[in-house]
Amino acid sequence: MRPRRSRVGVLAAVLCVGVLAGCAAPGGSGGAPTSGASSTESATRSAESGAAIENPKDLGAVSNACTLLTGRQLGELGMNAEPTYREEAMLGIRPCDWSGDRFAFTIIPDTKSGGIDELYATDNHGRGYERTEVADYPAAWVRRTDLTCRAKVGVSADASVDVHFTSYREPERSQPCESASEIAAMVLKNIPAA
Q1: Which of 39, 88, 140, 169 has its Cβ near the most Cβ atoms within 10 Å?
Q2: 76 & 107 share domain
Q3: Does one domain contain both 126 and 163?
Q4: Are 17 and 90 within one domain?
Q5: Coil, helix or strand for 13?
Q6: What pairs with residue 150 in β-bridges?
Q7: Residues 147, 119 share a domain
Q8: Tens-digit pLDDT profile for residues 27-72
Q9: Residue 191 to residues 87, 91, 109, 140, 156, Cα–Cα distance (Å)
Q10: Same domain, 22 and 117
Q11: Signal peptide span per the entry (predicted)?
């Protein structure tokens, strides 16, 4: 059996090499962005996940989650029900529910949980998730079942939008995560730029 100290030494050496390699990217100077983005541009990047948000959104400018989908978008989804605006603010801004005959969904603007990077860093607190993208924004599918899915989409370094989707066994909406992502992509169009 090897002494524990040599394992720790090897691990420390590997970590140091990884850190040094990350700081000296080809064509860049130690630690500076090499993507061509200046420090004054509004792109944000997470040190934890590496998820870039090239065009951050100002979720704080949204006061009513029910305004995050237009009537036209709801028609495209086949949603004919009126929204229900919840009284309690769950994660910073009060959520909005739609419940139709074939499916239901909730939009939850999240300005309190630390954004998508918090989910990536904590592995959804041990519950797991699947990384994806929605309209070029970093996202994750969580709480996935045959009938439900939550798409969490990072809109800035510290904010995200959650879309909880539930299918009532609707054949056209048999993939709840794809449906949640479709709705989230529509929502993104209605959040002002940061």
Answers
A1: 140
A2: yes
A3: yes
A4: no
A5: helix
A6: 142, 164
A7: yes
A8: 333 332 222 333 223 333 333 444 679 999 999 899 889 999 999 9
A9: 21, 17, 10, 19, 11
A10: no
A11: 1-21
Q: Is residue 47 part of a domain?
A: no
Query: What is the reported pLDDT for 76?
Result: 96
Q: Are 67 and 4 members of one domain?
A: no
- Amino acid identity of 69? L
Q: Are 68 and 188 in contact (CB under 8 A)?
A: no
Q: What is the number of alpha carbons within 13 Å of residue 57 lying toward its C-beta?
A: 25
Is 68 exposed, middle or buried, given 0-12, 13-18 or 19+ CB atoms closer than 10 A? buried
Determine the structural domain holding residue 159 and report its residue range.
Answer: 53-188
> Is residue 48 one of the residues assigned to a domain?
no
**Listed range (18-27, 136-145, 184-193) with the worst mean pLDDT:** 18-27
Strands 148-156 and 96-99: unpaired
Sign of CA dihedral 100, 101, 102, 104: positive
**18 three-state secondary structure:** helix
* Location of structure tokens 């309190």: 112
Instruction: Flag whether the pTM goes above 0.90.
Output: no
Looking at the fold, whether 103 and 163 belong to one and the same domain comes out as yes
CB 83 within 8 A of CB 68: no
Predicted confidence (pLDDT) per residue in 104-149, tens digit = 999 999 988 888 988 888 775 566 789 999 999 999 999 888 899 9
What would the two tokens of residue 191 be? 């959040």
105 shares a domain with 24: no
